[in-house]
Amino acid sequence: METRWQVLTTGDGSLTFFSEEFGQAFHNVSGAAQEALEKFVRPCRLDRLPLERDPAQPIRLLDICFGLGYNSGLALETIWQIRPHCSVEVIGLERSPEVPRQAWQAGVGSTWSFGQEWQHWIEQGSWQSQRWRGTLLWGDARQTVLQVPLGWADAVFLDPFSPSVCPELWTVDFLRAVAERMRPTGILATYSCAAAVRAALLEAGLFIGSTP
């Protein structure tokens, strides 16, 4: 049976959903799009790519709990504002294909410069063109993350529901699996600064610090 989520308009005018299952909105109600930029895209330094970067060398993004798609979508917009011809690869992990599909139907992504390509990706689960390639893996992220190549990601968006309602995606074992999929220079961004999360990130072999 298809699940329908309550649609909320956040403080910056962008939309989010409210999950009755988890008792939380998918984003901070002060601004879903703003949250994606300030807590994920910019902390991963995707708004200041080095001038000497080879545009043919793809930037690889791993979006854990893809949800409505803001993190990946605004990452693509940001990268291409700086480097219009930069190659990007995205892997999104999401439990239910209905979340991004209903988000598209509600208008999320329709104003992005690559909106038609985004729609195809959301509906088909994959997209490939000369400039970017996207793959959506449906199911439990603890299993689907194992399909991501080792040492692959330049940037990781870790965006599950909070540890209190979704503890399984904040464990040392899961975070270690994520860390193994990152390049040595890769950056992981998340919104949670809970002590237990910081400790788990450290135990998983990552270094931690505050976002801007």
Task: Describe this protein's structure.
Helices cover 30% and strands 23% of the residues. It has one domain (36-203): Vaccinia Virus protein VP39 (Rossmann fold), CATH 3.40.50.150. α2 (70-82) links the parallel β4 (59-64) and β5. The strands form two sheets. The protein has a six-stranded mixed β-sheet with strand order 6-7-5-4-8-9, with helices on both faces. It has helices at residues 32-41, 70-82, 98-106, 115-124, 141-144, 172-180, 195-203; strands at residues 6-9, 15-19, 24-25, 59-64, 88-94, 126-128, 132-138, 153-158, 182-190. The mean pLDDT is 93. α1 (32-41) crosses α2 (70-82). The N and C termini lie far apart (42 Å). It is of the alpha/beta class.
Topology:
Layout: E1 6-9, E2 15-19, E3 24-25, H1 32-41, E4 59-64, H2 70-82, E5 88-94, H3 98-106, H4 115-124, E6 126-128, E7 132-138, H5 141-144, E8 153-158, H6 172-180, E9 182-190, H7 195-203
Parallel strand pairs: 4-5, 4-8, 5-7, 8-9
Antiparallel strand pairs: 1-2, 2-3, 6-7
Helix pairs in contact: 1-2
General shape: globular
CATH secondary-structure class: Alpha Beta
**CATH architectural name:** 3-Layer(aba) Sandwich
Major sheet description: 6 strands, mixed
The fourth-level CATH homologous superfamily is Vaccinia Virus protein VP39
What is the string of SSEs from the N terminus onward? EEEHEHEHHEEHEHEH
The count of strands amounts to 9
Across the major sheet, the strand order is 6-7-5-4-8-9
CATH topology: Rossmann fold
What class, by secondary structure content? alpha/beta
Mean pLDDT: 93
How many structural units, i.e. domains? 1
Please compute the radius of gyration using only Cα atoms. Answer: 16 Å
Give the N-to-C terminal Cα separation: 42 Å
DSSP strand content: 15-25%
Low-confidence stretches: none
